[in-house]
Amino acid sequence: MSTSDLWGDLTGLETVTSPREVLEEQGAILAKKTHGKLRGDVRDLTQADTFIYALDIVAPGLNDYRYTVLTVRHGITMYPLLMLSGSDDAIPQARIKCDDEQELIDALSRVLGSSKTKRAIASLLAQMRAG
Q1: Which of 37, 83, 94, 99 is deepest in the core (most CB within 10 A)?
Q2: pLDDT tens digits along 99-109
């Protein structure tokens, strides 16, 4: 006995950009802006039913040294998601809830454009010039 299609019409599904795609795009932009001296790399840390991605700045000229800028975690529906920005002695870890793609982009803009992230980028570039 053959079963008919029970999935219904899937042609009108909403097209969405996954958080991982947004992070990968920003990684590619970093590589372009630094002429390949640095690149952004997205690591998949998914566990069970939680998707987890880390955005690292990678310095190929420093034996692929990695600096984790942030992580995002979400369920199957992607939003809301939780972004965790890196921490150090001076700045505590930030937890940012994003309810949709625009909020993710706004939060990414703040984290990637922050003085902390820019200091990390400048330090990596300086260390590559010195080496």
Answers
A1: 83
A2: 999 999 999 99
